[in-house]
Design brief:
With 120 residues, the protein is α+β, with helices and mostly antiparallel strands. Helices cover 59% and strands 13% of the residues.
């Protein structure tokens, strides 16, 4: 029986943390793989788009976003999109590695092959 000094976590809080951890565990690896796939699709694209409209050679794209006002030509917009695809692939690899590490940790801990150390 716990003494008055010990604090036990709320069962609802434990359940919420468990759901979040499991959602991350189950979702990180597939989401990372999907990000890599979408990034590779973006790298293979040879047609740049300006706000959803395909650009033609010699065309320009006027970019007016928050604190960003510039004009890209065809090659500049294609390079801009390829850079975004590379960043997306990088995040996908990072997320996949995190998901794979969580999954391997879970498999090793559940299979009881975790190295046991004796405290002396």
């Amino acid at each position: 029986m716990p003494s008055g000094n010990e604090r036990t976590p709320s069962p609802i809080l434990v359940a919420m943390v468990t759901v979040v951890v499991w959602a991350f565990l189950v979702g990180a690896l597939p989401l990372g793989i999907a990000l890599i796939h979408w990034g590779l699709d973006g790298l293979n694209r040879d047609q740049p788009y300006c706000y959803g409209v395909a650009m033609s050679r010699g065309g320009t794209c006027q970019i007016d976003e928050y604190r960003v006002h510039r004009e890209n030509d065809y090659d500049g917009q294609l390079a801009y999109e390829h850079h975004g695809a590379k960043v997306q692939i990088g995040f996908g690899v990072l997320l996949s590695l995190i998901g794979a590490l969580f999954l391997s940790f879970f498999v090793v801990s559940r299979s009881k092959i975790w190295p046991k150390r004796k405290l002396e």
